[in-house]
Amino acid sequence: MKCTKSMLTIGAGLFAVLAIAYVALPQFQTFVLSVAPFLLFLLCPLSMLFMMKGMNSHQDHRDTSDKSAPQKGEPEQPLSIKR
Questions:
Q1: Cα separations (Å) of 55 from 2, 19, 27?
Q2: Low-confidence ranges of the chain (pLDDT < 70)
Q3: For 44, phi and psi rounded to 5 degrees?
Q4: Distance of alpha carbon 33 from alpha carbon 26, whole angstroms
Q5: CA dist 56 to 49, 61, 63, 65, 74, Å?
Q6: What is the DSSP string of 26-81?
Q7: pTM for the predicted model, two decimal places
Q8: The predicted structure's pLDDT at residue 77
Q9: In angstroms, rounded to a whole number, what is the distance separating the alpha carbons of residues 10 and 22?
């Protein structure tokens, strides 16, 4: 699953940043400890946001030479009804 892999990668990166901030900035250790659970809680929605953004960027670069298909924002023409 690509989403799980990206979420684990982002989580590992976030954990590394928090660990480095905890060690490098001793005056902010309590702040880092208090904000870490909140950031880890936001990990799932943020990874979903980045994943959806990545999926939409691939759709923008598709081939536009096919003019028979209706374009985005252009309503489809209704079929004529014969009586």
A1: 12, 31, 40
A2: 1-3, 57-83
A3: -65, -50
A4: 11
A5: 11, 9, 14, 19, 18
A6: GGGHHHHHHHHHHHHHTHHHHHHHHHHHHHHHHHHTS-----SSPPTTPPPPPPPP
A7: 0.51
A8: 64
A9: 18
Query: Which tokens in the block code for residue 10?
Result: 């982002």
Check if the beta carbon of residue 25 is closer than 8 Å to that of residue 32. yes
Residue 20 token pair? 């480095």
- Six token digits for residue 11: 């989580």
Q: What is the CA radius of gyration of the chain?
A: 23
Q: Which two tokens stand for residue 29?
A: 């250790």
Task: Give the Å distances, CA to CA, from 61 to 55, 65, 70.
Answer: 11, 12, 16
